[in-house]
Amino acid sequence: MRSPGWNFLAKINVARIMVEGIAVVFISFGSAAAHGQEPPPPPPQETAPPPPSTTEKTQKQKYSHGNDFLIIGTVFDVKGYAFPGVELKVRRSTEKKVRWDSYTNSRGEFAIRVPQGSDYELIVRHKGAADQTRELNANTGLSEARIVVRMEIGKDEKK
Predict the structure, then answer these.
(1) Would you say residue 31 has pLDDT above 60?
(2) Which of 19, 49, 76, 135 is the most exposed place for a label (fewest CB within 10 A)?
(3) Residue 1 included in any domain
């Protein structure tokens, strides 16, 4: 006759054997899958394009901002406080078309980058204030101009 604990031990052994068997199946399947895979194909070899001719090099030169002229400034209102949201427009002195535009930030500051070698006009405008124009010379060899603008009440506005 068997003892009552024998049934319990037999069940534990059966469970252990099943778990070990499942583990063996997973391990062998994983290693077989890893060994059975083909190696990934080598990446395609890129052929270098032929070097561009000298005429193409001059046509495709990238523009560098290293030689730009930087217009930096601050705009103040009539009372001397920073004036945010003021519109700034820059054009070459020889042209009527505005090529660069920006607005002042929350501290009334602005920065606009333009190519060196020309004379420029900076137009500062805001509704209710008189427009102001500043002449800038970007031919001097300097790389920046610092400007402070104090807006004035417009002609139609009351003081």
Answers:
(1) no
(2) 49
(3) yes
Within 10 A of 158 (CB to CB), how many other CB atoms are there? 5
Whichever domain contains 71, its CATH number is 2.60.40.10
Contact 124, 151 (CB under 8 A): yes
In a domain, 157, yes or no: no
Could you tell me the pTM of the whole model? 0.55
At residue 107, does pLDDT exceed 90?
yes
What is the arithmetic mean of pLDDT over 84-96? 91
| 15-26 residue pLDDT tens | 666 667 666 555
- In 45-93, the DSSP E strands lie at 68-76, 87-92
